[in-house]
Amino acid sequence: MGIHRVVILDGYTDEPAGLGVPPYIGTYPRLIAGAFWLYDKSIKINYYTIDEVRRDIDTFVNSALNSDLVVFIVGTEVPGRYIGGKPITLEELFRLSILLEAKKKILTGPAARYGFGRGGGFVAVSYKRLMNLFDYIVYGDPEIFIYEGLKNSFERAEPWRLRRNYDLADRAFKLGSKIVLQHPNYGWNLIVEIETFRGCPRYITGGCSFCIEPRYGAVVYRSVKGIVDEVEALYNWGVRHFRIGKQPDILAYMAVDTGKKEFPSPNPEILEKLFHGIRNVAPELKVLHIDNVNPGTIYHNREESIKALKIIVKHHTPGDVAALGIESFDEKVVKANNLKVYPDEALEVIRIINKVGSPRGWNGLPELLPGINLVYGLLGETKNTYKTNFEYLKKILDEGLMVRRINIRKVATLENTPLWMHRDTVAHLIRKHDRLYKVHRLRVMDEIDKPMLKRIVPRGTVVKYLFTEAYDGIYTIARQPASYPIVFKIRGRMELKRIISVTPIRYHSKSVIAKPVED
Ligand code: SF4
Q1: What pLDDT is stored for residue 15 in this prediction?
Q2: Which mutation among 198, 200, 338 tests ligand 1's pocket best, with the greatest number of atoms within 8 A of CB?
């Protein structure tokens, strides 16, 4: 079929490695747009986010009905609540696909591969249930399917094919960078998620029980040149905020002995090349952050990891977070789910990151702080798990360490993970500990998060470069474009999309009441 007009609907993505909920634009829209334009630069692409569709469904439906193909990007596998946008719901997905029944439709994104995640504590809706709604369910890499489909035919293209290298993806990323111009957050707080590799080096031991990343098999790295060229293209289109976030562990980028060791040693020389290269092509960037760091990498390769962390701090922008998938401080749970580090090892890693990253930078925030992810409902969990986890968090607080954010969530059981085999046990644990979970969460918010936030932005701090983003009752919400931005609430309704500086007045567990100040 001749393809001249394409519509991309971004229902948003959130995976263990990779975020695509506004203000973030994920990798999928850029890869998909790039694959079309690689084949034919004259293809007209209209890109819509699901929030834009909710605001004006007629424009979207008309545009889709006038197109030759509609690509749906769907899959928030890591559940969360977002200030910047609301991911597509299953009902919306059904409704929109039925409205566009006559059109050729592709489903891509994590939902095509792992089912439609419905949030922590739930079993994902199998992608098989979505099969009747779409002509093609692409559970491989979308750029390969689309490019092959255009060159040969979509009937013959293989929806399961995964990239073995980044040759095609690099070209698609570069060309597809132009799609950012159509993103509603473009021109103010848009952050572009950059991919550096795929797969988890721990695939050789099976990886964590709940995680989809090791299922990709051997790790495939993207070249420094490929990444830097993409950043340059984005920068030339006006992007100023970047997160080098689409990988399970930035310290493992091109790590020595990947595929041989479960925790390969960081490669500081290559990381220097990467971050220096990015700074070189994007000299006026405002945000350069990272995301996940595997605590096991740091614990097992202390010296090289410290070097690598220092390189990141040299080139990034302050307010950065190394999100550590600690998942549990209960040794039994660590063992039963093949997690990365034992509790005291995790504590040591938090101390190391604090040592390197706690000095404050130009925007008022510490350079680089650890974040902690804790997951509940994992195999081996008992009532004692809650007690132990709290004790460790308290220990961190009492030691005077800083942790930017503690992310507590219930595990989402996804297809193709080892946990899927135990989904009934998980569901039982989640039900059994439901009350305990709620109480624990509130206790952590009150007794840990709140004092921690006070420590990170004490009274008198001037926090710079925040965007007024939304309203919440009598407050205006302002945040930095960042990896895990602190939510500042300012009394009154300020004009949105403005850049401001603030100083804290009062602390809640997940937000800070603040007032605007002159720089
Ligand atoms: S270390 Fe565990 S959670 Fe992190 S990517 Fe690997 S398997 Fe997933």
Answers
A1: 84
A2: 200
Residue 379 falls inside a structural domain: yes
> φ and ψ at 279, to 5 degrees?
-60, -35
Our answer on whether the CB atom of 115 is closer than 6 Å to any ligand 1 atom is no
Tell me if 165 is assigned to some domain.
Answer: no
- Whether residue 122 has pLDDT greater than 80: no
Residue 327 alpha carbon, nearest atom of ligand 1: 3
Q: Taking the complete model, does pTM exceed 0.85, yes or no?
A: yes
Q: What is the CA(107)–ligand 1 centre distance, in A?
A: 25
Q: How confident is the model at residue 399 (pLDDT cuts 50, 70, 90)?
A: very high
Same domain flag for 229 and 373: yes
Question: Is the pLDDT confidence value at 79 over 60?
Answer: no
Supply the range of the domain harboring residue 491: 463-517
Range 489-498, long-range pairs (CB < 8 A, 24+ positions): 489/513, 489/514, 490/514, 490/515, 490/516, 491/515, 494/468, 495/468, 496/468, 496/469, 496/470, 496/471, 497/188, 497/189, 497/467, 497/468, 497/469, 498/467, 498/468
For the chain, give percent helix, strand, coil, nearest 5: 40, 25, 35
Q: Could you give the CA distance from residue 485 to residue 480 in angstroms, rounded to a whole number? A: 6
Mean pLDDT in the chain? 95
Residue 80: pLDDT above 70? no
Do residues 373 and 485 both lie within one domain?
Answer: no
Is the per-residue pLDDT at 475 higher than 90? yes
Cα–Cα distance measured from residue 176 to residue 72, given in angstroms and rounded to the nearest whole number:
16
Nearest ligand 1 atom to the CA of 17 is 5
| Residue 131 vs residue 221, higher pLDDT | 221
* CB of 213 closer than 6 angstroms to any ligand 1 atom: yes
- Total number of domains constituting the chain: 3
The reply to whether 130 falls in a domain is yes
